Amino acid sequence: MPELPEVETVRRGLEPVLQGRRIARADIRRPDLRWPFPENLGSRLSGVRVLALRRRSKYILADLDTDETLIVHLGMSGRMLIDGATTAAMYHDRAALEPHDHVVLDIEGGARVRFNDARRFGMMDLAGTPSAEAHRLLAGLGPEPLGNGFSADHLAAALRGRRTPIKAALLDQRIVAGLGNIYVCESLWHARIHPARSAGRIARARVETLVTAIRQVLTRAIAAGGSSLRDYRQADGELGYFQHDFNVYDRENQPCHRPGCPGVIRRFVQSGRSSYSCNTCQR
DNA sequence: ATGGGGGCCTGCCGGC
DNA sequence: TGCCGGCAGGCCCCCA
Fold it and tell me: Is 0.70 topped by the overall pTM?
């Protein structure tokens, strides 16, 4: 479910709860999510201090004082729920466990973090901290779209000669890491590029526009998520879910938002997934 | 090598 | 009201 902005929002929301704090007890309530949990996950997390929370693409990385890093992916439906006091302002009552609460972390000082994932497409694994980014799931990832490694030069080189639709190329995490269906659709609309256009047939100037669009779309979404964190207690402690303001996603048959464009947003299927675009202003 | 499709799960929503 | 099909923001893996 969550793409890079949602994962970053979750990371920021977890930071005040976890960073520098000790996990008093970890309750692992089933043997697996998408894959089996690592051996003895509960005991390897219990009594352990969290040194830092990082993000790589859609993965959250929690560096532990055991020289291990907890790698978490939220999959499609994964959520982090926070209960209990960390600061007075963040206090609300500790909720009872709910269905699909698969991992429960009781934090020293009284907070509780629950990993809830109905569809169980999420994952958790442990890796040695120095080699965490060499984990098989992270090793092949392309550059962070908001980092220096993502540039028009990089994207143009990655797209060169590719006949696949640009939509599929941007979903390919080896080309750029962290985009999902929504933000790809939104970025292509901003750049006025049609999702079905062949990746290798986008002029250099338009690739530059696309890079800028991707950065802006993600940056704005993170800002929107950040603003939702300030009052997340109203959202029952659920992190990373906020009101989005999409221009094309889930707007089938609604008018294009581009000023002066008479077009209507259409939905069509590409490699089994919904694409949304304005066929008037996106080419 | 590259691209497309299946599969993993559960929940929800719209239509009949 | 109830049932059923379709759909969901991810990603690995297999096959052509």
Answer: yes
Structure tokens at A39: 């051996």
Q: Burial code of A171-207, b = ≥16 C-beta within 10 A, e = fewer?
A: bbbebbbbbbbbbbbbbbbbbbbbbbbebeebeeebb
Which pLDDT tens digit goes with each residue over A65-103?
A: 999 999 999 999 999 998 875 444 444 455 689 999 999
| Nucleotide showing the shortest C1' distance to residue A165 CA | B3
Among the options A11, A58, A79, A206, which is catalytic?
A58
Whose CA is closest to A12, among A243, A177, A235, A227?
A: A227
Q: Is A273 an active-site residue?
A: yes
CA quadruple A42, A47, A48, A50: dihedral sign: positive
From A174, A4, A128, A129, select the one nearest A73 (Cα to Cα): A4
Give yes or no for a contact between A105 and A116, defined as CB atoms under 8 angstroms apart. no
pLDDT at A58 over 80: yes
Question: How many Cα atoms are found within 13 Å in the side-chain-facing hemisphere of A242?
Answer: 25
Checking each nucleotide's C1' against the CA of A1, the nearest proves to be C9
At A232, is the secondary structure helix, strand, or coil? helix
- The alpha carbon of A223 is separated from its chain's Cα centroid by a whole number of angstroms, namely 14
To the query of whether residue A3 is one of the catalytic residues in this protein, the response is: yes
